[in-house]
Design brief:
Structural class: alpha+beta
Number of strands: 6
Strand content: 35-45%
Largest sheet: 6 strands, antiparallel
Order of helices and strands: HEHEEHEEE
Distance between the termini: 19 Å
Number of helices: 3
Length: 101
């Protein structure tokens, strides 16, 4: 789910390769994983050497109530663990993933 969203809005290039083993990530990104260990938070790392796009996603309860549909809060970081942007996303059957900021 998070991977399809990452390509939808060009958060990462479509040819980037998924890194699923956290030991293959730089230390700042491994630290982010440790800091985002809530049960409902997921992470995704995509690489196109030397760049890495690191995303975390968690449900946005307030936005979900407002829209009456599940909404994800997505945060994007670079390979050094620096925060780049946050956005909210909703999935609809008609249009797929849509930014709802």
């Amino acid at each position: 789910m998070l991977e399809s969203l990452s390509y939808r809005d060009e958060l990462a290039p479509p040819h980037a390769i998924r890194i699923s083993d956290s030991t293959n990530l730089p230390e700042p990104l491994r630290a982010l994983i440790l800091n985002h260990q809530e049960p409902e938070t997921a992470w995704l790392a995509l690489a196109d050497a030397p760049r890495i796009w690191f995303l975390t996603a968690s449900p946005s309860v307030a936005q979900s109530r407002e829209r009456q549909k599940p909404v994800l809060n997505v945060r994007l970081y670079n390979e050094r663990g620096l925060f780049l942007e946050a956005s909210h996303w909703v999935f609809t059957q008609a249009a797929g993933w849509q930014r709802c900021d």
